[in-house]
Amino acid sequence: MIRFPFSNRQGRPRKAHAARDPRALSLPVFALAGVLALGAGLRDRLDDWVARTQLPLLEVPVGTEVLARDGALLRAFQVADGRWRLAPGPVDPLLIAMLTTWEDRRFAEHNGVDPVALLRAARQSLRHGRVVSGASTLTMQVARLLEEGPTGEWQGKIRQMRLALALERNLSKDEILDLYLRLAPYGANVEGVRAASLLWFGKEAHRLTPAEAALLVALPQSPERRRPDRHPQAAKTARDRVLARAAEAGLISEADARAAMAEPVPTRRRAFPAVAPLLADRLARSHPGATRIGTTIDLRLQRRAESLIERASKAQGHRVSAALVLADHRNGEILAEVGAAEWAAGPSSGFIDMTQAVRSPGSTLKPFVYGLAFDDGIAHPETLIEDRPTAFGHWQPQNFDNKFRGTVSMRQALIWSLNIPVVKLAEVTGPTRIAQTLARGGINLRLSGGAAPGLAVTLGGAGVTLEELANGYAALARGGTGITLSPLPGGAEPRETAMFGPVAAWQVGHIMAQALPPTGRPSGRIAWKTGTSYGNRDALAVGYNGGYVVAVWMGRPDGTPVPGAFGGDLAAPLLFDVFDILPDIALPPPPPQTLTVPNAALPLPLRRFAPAGEASAVAARPAAPDSLRLTFPPDGAEMDAKSPLTAKARGGRAPYTFLVNGAPVAIAQPQPSAEIPNPGPGFARMTVIDADGTSASASIRLH
C-alpha cells in the first residue's frame, strides 16, 4: 500500500486574540476537512486500483545448466525462444551498489514509484523543454521487462507504474532485484547479468572488476547501441559515466575509477562454456524442465581428458575420432566423459556421442570368459591349453597374426589375446551363460536380429557401448561385483549379483597387469586389455588400477575402416596417458583363498584343459555305480550365507580335495566329507576331486 507521510508542524506561539466569530472559523475548517476527505478518497481509489492489477507470470523461464561436481558450469542451454537467460547466481556486491546508485538511489525506500524522481524529471523537462532524466525505478523497469511493454508512450508508463506498485506489494526487494538481474537486456539474444558476464568476460558475475561491473550496469540502458563488439566507444563512454558516478558516491576511490576507465572494453563475444557437451546434452534431454543438473564430473580431469582426446585424434587425422569414459570404480562416479574428439558436425562427426554408440568390442570381452572358467573351477591361470587349428562346427577361427603357439598356459593365452583357447573355454562354459555373466556386470550384448549368442561373441561378434565396457571392467576391479557407473550424484548402484567370485576376478586382473605396456612404461600398475574390431573399424583399450577405470575408443563414427588401426597401437597409448593424470593407486593383493602355485602343483584336472572331444580316458569312461559324486549340497541349493558349510561326497577313491570357486579349501582328506568356510552371499561352485582326478561339482546360492 502506498503511504503518504504527513508531519504535524507546530508554528511559533501566537499572541492572544479576542474571541472570533465562529462563523469566521467555519470556512477554513470545512475546507481542510474537504481536502482531507478528498485525499483519503483518492488514496482508497489508488489502493483499489493497484489491488486489481493483474500480474504477469513471475516464473521467468531460464535455460538448463549442467554443473560439475564443484558447481562450475559445464554447459548451459538456451530457453525455448532461443534466448540466453540463466538463473541468477552470486553477484558481486559492487555491481549491485553501482546499479542502485546509477538507476534507482531510493530503491530501498520507495514503493515502486519514486515521487521525488518524478518531480525532478518533470522540473527538468519544463526547464529544458526536453527529457533530461528518466524517473523509472528498477521496479518499473522490471514491470516493463516482464511484459515487454513500450518505453515511450504515456500509456505504457502508466501501466509500468501500476504494475510496479503491485509488484512491490507482492514481492520483496530482493525478489524484484532478482527479476531485474535475470531479465536485463544485453543485446541480441542475451538477457540477465549472469549470461552477460559469461558472454563478455568469460566468467561468473560473483567477482568483477570495477570496469566490468560498470559495463554490466551501463549496457541495459541501450543494449544494441552500446554493444561492445559493435560500438566499443559508445560502450566505453557509458561505462565511464557509471564509474564516475560510483566514485562520486564513494563506492570506489577516484584512483580506482581512473584506472578502470583506462581499461579497454571487450570487443568480442565469448562462447558459453561447453565442457563435456555431449554428456550435458544427454542429461538435459533426460531431465526436461530441470533448471540445474548436478554431476560427478571433475572439471580438471574433464578438461585434461578432452585435451588428450583431441591431441590423439589430430595425430591420426583421416576423420578419426575418439571417446573416453573415466570413473571411480569404488563408488561408481563418472569423473570424465568425452563423447567425441571435436564437438562439431565436422569431418569427424563430433555430434555423435561415441560413449553410447553400439560398436564391436573386439577382444575386450575375453577376460570375462577366463574369469568365468576360473570361477567354475575348470581352469586356472597356470592350466595348460592347446593353441592349435581347431574347428568349432563350420567355424575355424584364426589368431590375429594367423600363427599358432601350441601348448600355452591360460595366463599366456590371455596376455597374448589368443583366439583358439578362449573359444575352447567359451564352448565349455556356454555362450548363453557368458552373455548372462556379462549382463550381471552391466554389459548387454546386441546381436543381429535378436539371435542367440554364439561362440563368436568372445571375439567381438556382438555390439556393446564404451560405457558398458567401463561398467564390466569396474566389476573386475571390484572383485567381480558390478556397479552401474553414473555421472549423477547418487546415481551409481552396486549390482545385486556378482559376475563371479573375487578369486577369479583377481586372477584375471593379475594376468592383465602383466601385459607389456606401450612405449616402455612400467608394467604392473594397470590391469588392461585392448581390442580391435573386424576390419580395423574400432580400436579399444580398457583398464583399471586400484581406484579408477578407463575405457578408450578410437575410430571413425561412420564405421568405415581405419587402415592400420589396432587397439594396441592406437588406443593403448591414450589409455596410459589418461592414467598418467590420475593418482597411482595400487592393484589389490590376492584374496586369502587364492591358489598361487605352478602348474605341477595344481590338482590333476587343473593341469591341462580338456574340453569335449579332448577328454582324458578317466573322464571319458561311463560313470560306474561307485563313481565320485557330490551328495551335499545338492546342485541348485539355496543356503544361509552365515552358517558353516559341510561338503559330502560318495564314491571315488581317497584322498579327496574340496574346492570352492576353484580354490582348494580342504586338501587330501581321508574321508569324503569336510567342513569348509562359507564364501559369503552370492553364487558359489563346490567341487570335489578324488585320487584318480575324477571330479564332481554343484552350484549353490548363498543368501
UniProtKB/TrEMBL annotation:
Domain Penicillin-binding protein transpeptidase positions: 323-537
Gene behind this protein: pbpC
Gene3D superfamilies: Biosynthetic peptidoglycan transglycosylase-like, DD-peptidase/beta-lactamase superfamily
Pathway annotation: Cell wall biogenesis; peptidoglycan biosynthesis
Keyword match Transmembrane helix: no
Penicillin-binding C-terminal domain residues: 620-698
Protein name per its UniProtKB record: peptidoglycan glycosyltransferase
Catalytic reaction equation(s): [GlcNAc-(1->4)-Mur2Ac(oyl-L-Ala-gamma-D-Glu-L-Lys-D-Ala-D-Ala)](n)-di-trans,octa-cis-undecaprenyl diphosphate + beta-D-GlcNAc-(1->4)-Mur2Ac(oyl-L-Ala-gamma-D-Glu-L-Lys-D-Ala-D-Ala)-di-trans,octa-cis-undecaprenyl diphosphate = [GlcNAc-(1->4)-Mur2Ac(oyl-L-Ala-gamma-D-Glu-L-Lys-D-Ala-D-Ala)](n+1)-di-trans,octa-cis-undecaprenyl diphosphate + di-trans,octa-cis-undecaprenyl diphosphate + H(+)
InterPro entries in alphabetical order: Beta-lactam/transpept-like (IPR012338), Glyco_trans_51 (IPR001264), Glycosyltr_51/Transpeptidase (IPR050396), Lysozyme-like_dom_sf (IPR023346), PBP_1c (IPR011815), PBP_C (IPR009647), PBP_transglycosylase (IPR036950), PCN-bd_Tpept (IPR001460)
Keywords, comma-separated and alphabetical: Carboxypeptidase, Glycosyltransferase, Hydrolase, Multifunctional enzyme, Protease, Transferase
Family affiliation: In the N-terminal section; belongs to the glycosyltransferase 51 family.
Enzyme Commission (EC) number: 2.4.99.28
Organism: Paracoccus cavernae
SUPFAM superfamilies: beta-lactamase/transpeptidase-like (SSF56601), Lysozyme-like (SSF53955)
